[in-house]
Amino acid sequence: MTAPDARQAFRIAWAADRRANGSYPKSRFVMRWFRLAQRWKAGRGPLSRLMFIMVGGSYKLVTEGFMGIELPVSTPVGPGLRLRHGVGVVVNPASRIGANVMLRQGVTLGNRRTSDDCPIIEDDVEIGVGAVVIGAVTVGAGARIGPNAVVFKDVPAGAVVMSPLSEIRA
Q1: Which neighbouring-strand residues pair with 71?
Q2: In sequence order, what DSSP letters do the residues of 82-146 get, joined into one string?
Q3: Are 110 and 88 in contact (CB under 8 A)?
Q4: CA–CA separation, 138 vs 121, rounded Å?
Q5: 3-state DSSP helix/strand/coil percent for the chain, to nearest 5?
């Protein structure tokens, strides 16, 4: 089986995002715009470049400047990303986000020492309100990060991280 082209990858991801954000119209709007910008960025040729400048530029201006959602188009994000409220979400472009991940308001995924030592968030992870995940850490599949937790160590799959002590329970 061959890898999906940009258009097909967009359709697959957008369908999953639409289902994941079914009752959140703002999140559906942001994720559709995000996927469109990613689709045009992945394309080739002058039309794709022009469309990316228009779609990607307007996406960045509106989501970062007016909505307070910093989810760069260059960030690899699996299908089915759930944005809950979205305000104050900051994602470093070097972070990687798996499929079916939930980001709530005030979440930060960022670097710690260098510009590219960012988190890897595996599939089916939920990150609570105000949580901060920094550095080159991996949050394992199915893990839950509680509200206001600060994570700077690897989190095993299925674990729960609670605040304020960032206690890890496997």
Answers
A1: none
A2: EEES-TTEEE-TT-EE-TT-EEETT-EEE-SSSTT---EE-TT-EE-TT-EEESS-EE-TT-EE-
A3: no
A4: 6
A5: 30, 20, 45
User: What letter would DSSP give residue 167?
Assistant: E
Q: Is 155 left (phi over 0), alpha (psi -120 to 50) or beta?
A: beta
User: Domains in the chain, ordered, with CATH?
Assistant: 6-169 (2.160.10.10)
Whether the CB-CB separation of 36 and 29 falls below 8 Å is answered with no
| 68: nearest Cα among 93, 52, 51, 91 | 91
Tokens of 144: 């839950």
| pLDDT per position as a tens digit, 83-138 | 998 899 999 999 999 999 999 999 999 999 888 899 999 999 999 999 999 999 99
| β-strand partners of 151 | 133
Is residue 104 a contact partner of residue 85, using CB atoms and an 8 Å limit? yes
Task: Give burial (CB, 10 Å; 0-12/13-18/19+) of 106.
Answer: buried
Q: Global pTM? A: 0.90
